[in-house]
Amino acid sequence: MPMPTADRTAVLIVAAGRGTRVGPGAPKQWRDLAGQRVLDRTVEAFRAAGFARILCVLHADEQHLAPNDVTTCAGGDTRAASVRAGLEALAADPPDHVLIHDGARPLVSPKLIAQVMEALAVHDGAAPALPVTDALWRGGAHVTGTQPREGLWRAQTPQGFAFPAILNAHRSHDGDAADDVEIARAAGLTVAITEGSEDNLKLTRAADFPRAARLLETPMTDIRLGNGYDVHRFGDGDHVWLCGIRIPHTRGLQGHSDADVGMHALTDAIYGALAEGDIGRHFPPSDPQWKGAESHIFLAHAAQRIAARGYRLANADVTLICERPKIGPHADAMAQRLAEIMSTDPGRISVKATTSERLGFTGREEGIAAIATCALIGG
Ligand code: MG
């Protein structure tokens, strides 16, 4: 048998049922699943796997609800009758193969479909299933017996067949059946079992909808940005501390710690990204133990908070705003020192500077300002 191809295969999606087990409301194929109708998702799953010829078997009253760009036909009173109607509709231009699928299995994967198609190269029929792993009981209110589970499978769809073979099987079958495999086997066809998936669930009860919605969620990369701004005033002194580097200068910066304005801005950016306030919240200026504390204690704490909250630092960018001292010759050493305090790669840290064209308080050299931005990645 030739390898079945998507362009010579039709997809027959059965969605004519009333789905009473799901509870009051619209039949399940029309219900919303994470912002899209169940049947639209099911159709999309096959399109994504490369199938263009898709026939939806719908209830006679619901033909107008059909998804875009599919053909439809009216279903019958039973599932078998609905599939038969679909097969007869396809018979006018018969495909080589047909995949018969439950409309209420929207999470079918391209891989699962491909495995069914591969098996059809050597078998009349192929369908996915999962081995039963739970113990099986008989009973009602009480357990009245157990059923050995060896050799038992939970059947799924799509169930694939050579088209003429399954059409003939349906034409010669009376009454309903659990699925098309039953009808195929009754006609003597061999049906291979391919690998099913727990995610290929059939939406049957109300609780299946939130479960399917969770499976559809793509994990969101959690990115957090923070900014920080700080200013310290010049006073007497012969050096300044900027981003952890001591720079000789004609004046010093005033502040209750070492007045490292750049490191303070960066520390606040991190707290901001974590929505954990600012340095003052973690190290209150009113607390004597922080009087004169070296700023690397604050930055190291903020870096620890990044890890404790389950994030990593993507990058940080610090800009110092001053006329003097000249920052350029020290910028690399500053980035190295900040990275060392934060236990991160210096390539993730930028330190740069600008003047303010002699305008404003920084231009008049009354103080130094710093702004900082950081990005944290989590999830
Ligand atoms: Mg400060």
State the low-pLDDT regions, or none. none
**Average of pLDDT:** 94
Structural class: alpha/beta
Question: What would you call the shape?
Answer: elongated
Task: Please give a handful of descriptors for the protein shown.
elongated, eight-stranded mixed β-sheet, 379 residues, binds magnesium ion, alpha/beta
Can you offer a commentary on this structure?
- Helices cover about 30% and strands about 30% of the residues.
- It contains 11 helices and 19 strands.
- Strands 1, 4, 5, 6, 7, 10, 11 and 12 form an 8-stranded mixed β-sheet that branches. The protein has a 5-stranded mixed β-sheet with strand order 16-13-19-17-18. Strands 2-3 form a two-stranded antiparallel ribbon.
- Strand 2 and strand 3 (about 35) form a beta hairpin.
- Helix 4 (about 165-170) packs across helix 5.
- It is elongated and about 100 Å long.
- The mean pLDDT is about 95.
- The chain binds magnesium ion (MG).
- Magnesium ion binds next to strand 13 and helix 7.
Write the layout of secondary structure elements.
Blueprint: E1 9-15, E2 32-33, E3 36-37, H1 38-48, E4 54-58, E5 71-74, H2 79-90, E6 97-102, H3 110-119, E7 125-131, E8 136-139, E9 143-147, E10 153-155, E11 159-162, H4 163-171, H5 180-186, E12 191-195, H6 208-216, E13 222-235, E14 239-242, E15 245-248, E16 252-253, H7 261-273, H8 279-282, H9 295-308, E17 311-321, H10 331-342, E18 349-354, H11 360-363, E19 367-378
Parallel strand pairs: 1-4, 1-6, 4-5, 7-12, 17-18
Antiparallel strand pairs: 2-3, 6-11, 7-10, 7-11, 8-9, 13-16, 13-19, 14-15, 17-19
Helix pairs in contact: 2-4, 4-5, 7-9
Bound molecules: magnesium ion.
